[in-house]
Amino acid sequence: MTLVTVLYAICIISAVAFFASRARALSSVSGDQRKLHSLPQYYGTNGILLSLIPALILLLIWTYLQSLFIENHVAGLIPSELITENANINLLMSEVERLSDGLKMVVSAGLISRDALIAITNDLTMIEAALKQADVFLSGDIRPEIMSAAQTRYVLETDGNQYRNWVVTVVSIIGFATAFLQAKQDFRARNQVERIVLLILASAATLAIFTSVGIVLSMVFEASRFFSMHEWTDFFFGLVWAPSFSHGSQLSILPLLWGTLYISFVALLVSVPIGLYAAIYLSEYASKPVRSVAKPLLEILAGIPTIVYGLFALTTFGPFLRMFFGDGGFLGVEWMSDSRSVITAGVVMGMMLIPFVSSLSDDIINAVPQSLRDGSYGLGATQSETIRSVILPAALPGIIGAILLATSRAIGETMIVVMGAGAVAKFAGNPLEALTTITTRIVSQLTGDLEFDSPETLVAFALGLTLFVLTLCLNVLALYIVRKYREQYE
Amino acid sequence: MMNDVPSKRSLYDISERTKKRNAAEGRFRLYGIIAIAIGLLMLLVLVTTIIYRGTSAFQQTFITLEVELLEKKLDKKGNRNFDDIKKVSTFGYKPLLATAMQAALQENGIETDLKKKALSGMISKSAAAQMREYVLADPSVIGTTVEFRFLTNGWIDGYLKGRYTRESVENSKFASAAQFDLTDKLVEIGVIEKKFNLDFILGADSSDQRPEAAGIGVAMVGSLYLMLVVLCLSLPLGVAASIYLEEFAKQNIVTDIIEITISNLAAVPSIVFGILGLAVFINYVELPQSTPIVGGLVLTLMTIPTIIISTRASLKSVPPSIRSAALGLGASKMQTVFHHVLPLAAPGILTGTIIGMAQALGESAPLLLIGMIGYIATNMPGSVAEGLFSPNSAMPAQIYEWAKRADPAFIERAWGGIIILLIFLLTMNTLAVILRRRFERRW
Asked: What is this model's ipTM?
């Protein structure tokens, strides 16, 4: 019985359970639906839930535990002499896994029967020939210990799967039987069904929450592996970022942090004035038709994927700046050598952030009650004076919150800086030169060629954790400021 | 006394101070208008750049040639044995191209100094493979003359699209001014022409040397599988979680923490999710790398907070009177939620989901880290299982890959890919807006 067959079987059992339980409930009141405690469909649904859910949960748990058990057991079978520098335990285990999968293919292709396969212990040539015939890739001669480990694994896996499939089917049938026997006139089917549904909803909520815990835990785990290989003081307080292929790379976050903050600063320099003034005009001065056209248009800027901005920065805006500031440009200066620079990425990122600042500020400014404005006008102030002296101070906490959120978005932005900012990590001040950021380095370290366990690759997790904590703090700060200083209008 | 009488002033005389204040007011309005204008200008520049740079990717230069499939080159033994024909690699097909070119030139009376290699070099490297596939599909055509439509190589294509001039290829070993002259003559007689390139939309990516044959079709299928996984996982989970949190959970410290966690999750940078995907799904669970299933799981994690937030807002917007009426008529809490509240909140949930998925479609940073980028998407997946579990690329990742190659032909394709991506996004967002307008209820 295969996995697919089991799933089909469970589905069929559930369907039968629905109709059977429902029919039994109805027959217990001789067809008079009004005498039943719940609607007939609840008795049927009870049948589906009881035959489906325990079986599926058992399936998942059994599969997981089985794979753990098999891994441990088979790893114990490999004699320790075979474990060397070049062939560590993981490599051997994956070879065993590949072989046992190959054995599965051999048996299913009918080349050797299952019993014959298990019986062969000495003469491996027959197995090797069969494997070749089944198109299984063999890297060389198979050592007898590996082959016997593979045979054991194959047997354990196939036997375990068989038992699992049968047990799951039986559990499903038991569920069906329970629901069937419960289907009587006085059985409170609806209450039981609703309790089960509530359980399902609650587990969905817990699952959604656990992912955020999972993020932090997984990154903490990998980052702690990095910190065991590299001094944390050097990481947080050192001044040089220079990974190298041989050992002895200098990995510190400060140059990257500088690049990130510099580019975010430029982005905010572009987006905050434009966004704020646009929001003020749209909420205070603009007529309805203008507002209904301009606001959605500005929001389109927020919906464009960041890769588009990245490509724009790389291929259009960068060369455009080079035309002025670069070698042979209009201004005759040589300040810009490459089209990637802080300004390239910063200005384009600012473009992307304008709708953030503008939408959030717009909502906040609109929330200021009309009575404050009327009072100010009544005292003779012009509209701009009202805005400057009355409305902006009232809306200030919210606007600062919006700016902080935009900053956190800018700090975490990846594609625009990967394509527009470059790879140079130093404390440079010239905005027309390339500078790298935390996010760029995360991408380059994780997609590089070094092996996964080296500090150069693991540093990406430490960087990611720092980034996560940084953006989290900014968000929490933004929320706190908004809540604490929010004006309480009556 | 006369000196104490204040000088007469008319209300129509505007004092200095008021003039200044009015001027300041005018300036302030101007700043606002300038700000909006700059924002809209940036949008305009972006859109025009996209259209200007990208539309040329949809046209490609083709050359129509009659190629004599010489038996002595392709099937030396002459007995049409499939295995023998299969052994002839693309190397065997290449010389046929030069001969065909020379024949075509002779037929049309065009003279040229170009040697065989330069002539066949004008045609894309994919031409030999194209011919080989054709012959393998029907070995009986060996010995006949067949008319093929090949892609020209990237340089000729670039020349006809205005990217290259004769000066720019002076020192190049891949193209020459003489080739361009010949191209002009062939265009005149219609042998070479620029046509709409369906292969760009439907075809697969190609290697570095053949930008002319690259297509985004397979990446589109990869994106489709990604979206499938995201929809199937995030919608049920998100809606179920929201219903529980909104309707059934008790208001205590635990639910407060949950709320804070969810709103913070929504603001986490996308690359952090990519790191999570790498650490958990690929290293720990050991799912195959670069597959849509891993990408889909990562994007699901990103989309769930968005869906939860919008679903909660929709559920909150259903007025309590509906719930009270249902409860008053004897419905249980669960029945109220599923039979009355949820259907009324459905339009809002739907629009929130569509917008969340549109955001997920355009994400590329997390996909970079799980590997859906280096892989060259060369084959359409055959089945759903293969589509989910075999390595593939996604549209934004493919665009990034092309942009990295720094060849102007690939950059052009990157812009073309952006156009296609934006068409998808535009459709999804418009659908969301239409649905919202159509089903929105004002309570």
From this structure: 0.84
